[in-house]
Request: fold
Amino acid sequence: MSATEPGDPIPLRFRLSSYRFRLPEDRIAQVPAADRTGSRLLVLDRRTGARAHHGFADLPRFLRPGDCLVLNDTRVVPARLIARKPTGGRVELLVLRHDGSRMEAMFGASRGLAPGQALEVLDRAGEPAGVSLRVAAVAARGGIAAIDAPSPVRALLDASGRIPLPPYIRRDGGAAHALDAERYQTVYARAEGAVAAPTAGLHFTGGLLAALEGQGVEVVRLTLHVGPGTFRPVKTDDVRLHDVGEERFDVPGATADAVNLAIGEGRRVVAVGTTAVRALETAGASGRVEPGEGATRLLIVPGFRFRAVSAMVTNFHLPGSSLLLLVSALAGRRRVLAAYREAVRTGYRFYSYGDAMLIA
Reply:
């Protein structure tokens, strides 16, 4: 897919402005539904644009025997640390990687960070945790620092780290952490490494998955560790030029075999979330899903040829986001935006803790 030459008009389906929609702030879910399957479910026919409104507990009605349902079993790490400078200024750290007592972290601070600077960690109640960090280096481009801790970083995250909620969820404190530690994880989360949840999976319970398997749906798993790029806004007028960042994934051999067999037999492959889509389409770029570990920077926009995925479960996404682009690539920009406008009008809850769509 080639980018537009300088001075050429950007085709409508590749213009960032084509993926804007009006979303009242009160539609952004701040807390999860009382029960995981208590969310609403908008069913969208990706070929006709027909829409129907149901509850997520109704999902078994729309999956059929032989469907291959693919889950992302990554687990969110409590990778958000709150610290304080000697001047009293607050610093938020998002730990991207750690090895022993050294971490690499994105930081948010009003006046930046400098090598040699000391930081005092705050516990989940906002009180001093008795741990002092030291900035070792700051990247030339800014926003990322190497930071040393007096003990293993993993233990520090377990003691004082918080679940790194998306920036549009504005809650804090110990009670919020206790809720999010449970509900911002899927019930099948296993492989630690994500800084954000694969949120389409938050609606599933063990009982619902058992019911799907009981009716002949094949349930398989892969891992894609969601990175901070999922929150990165698209800033290029031509959406094809956006960089989604790199994310690591692992497709087990049994999963690759199951997906390839389903494709060969003409059965549907239903990805749960955009992360599962990107892992499958990266591993299946040759037309056959290859097992193993890898990294993906795959940007999916309208015009993309899907080789593995034929349907998906997904949440409602930010205007102009790479996630909305991916959904529009599968179902068509006009059909998706029409469904979103209807969802806004009828009171659906948006984003990570919001309601769900089935695109089939």
